Amino acid sequence: MKTTRLLCSSAVAHLRTVLDGELGAIREAGTYKSERVISITTPMAPKIGVHNQPGKVLNFCSNNYLGLSSHPEVIQAGRDALLRYGNGLSSSRFICGTLTIHKELEDAISRFHGTEDTIVYISCFDANAGIFETLLTPDDAVFSDQLNHASIIDGIRLAKCQKHRYLHADMKDLEEKLSRSNARVKMIVTDGVFSMDGTIAPLPAICELAEKYNAIVFVDECHATGFLGATGKGTPELTKVGSKVNIINSTLGKAIGGGCGGYTTGPKQVVDILRQRSRPYLFSNTMPPALVGSAIKAFELLSQSSELPAIVDRNTKLFRSKMTEAGFTLSGTEHPIAPVMIYDAAKATAMADALLAKGIYVIGFSYPVVPKGLARIRVQLSAAHSEEEVMECVEGFVTVGREMGII
Length: 407
Known about the structure:
The protein has 15 helices and 15 strands. It is an alpha/beta fold. The chain has a seven-stranded mixed β-sheet with strand order 3-11-10-9-6-4-5, sandwiched between helices.
């Protein structure tokens, strides 16, 4: 027993040494990421309290696109579900983890997207982890954009299908790969919005190629559902391709209340086979009742009015136009993810820290989250921001940008 403990102790000591070296290199490169702790008395909102930071700061780095994370009706719906159904079900869906409200939520999502059926997971990472392995065999092929989200990449790794990666948004490269494939089922996979750049997939061209080569179109809508398009239906609505997108995966943890949860929505047979074979669905706990209730209310609010998506669009246009006028370079065009390109990792981190000192909460992104030499500060606009708050953010960037010689 003593020998075993000594060996374990020696192994752990060696592991510590290895990791200390890697962590030291990250710090030296100026890319070490420290988590900022939000005050426990502050809900997610345009103004939040940050640990060890006096007063409140303007929050411009949240996925709370519609401001529903702290909406009173969304909170009340969650509270009602918590009191009625309890904290959780201690089960996966197929054993004893499906409540009537889980089916109500799936029906609400299907109505919202105009699809046949929906399956809800504990997260969209799980939805992406479960779909490709379940649907695609060695006789099938997937064609994935090279900048797709990590959860899509990991999900495709699990599948035993033929795998092709096309150059980002490059329709010539995609067509070349499609034309050479003799796969039984061909699936084109893309993010609707590429979240590090705020760019939107060329869905009309993708759908045209899908029709030409008899392929399925799969779109991850995590950074689009609820706020892109006139009524918040996402990139298919924004790009006017509608039902030409066959399968949608998205999240309930961003615009739709900010809690957790993800889903796949599309043809009934796709959803049915996922219920039979999708490992994250079969072997993970069901989504907690409180979050189910909150999500149902969020979709209800969206169905009643398109006011919130319109405010997101207004704030996005205001920020992007004023920042461009000030001399900053922004990635993307019409999306509320507005990355301010700094290029240098250390400068991006230093600028984010300087902005926090001025009451603007943003985060610098650098390698390995984005490619080397493309460091940025990702600003995210919300319907909860007032125009005055957007302009205060712009003014903060201008002041710090001039102090640091960035503009």
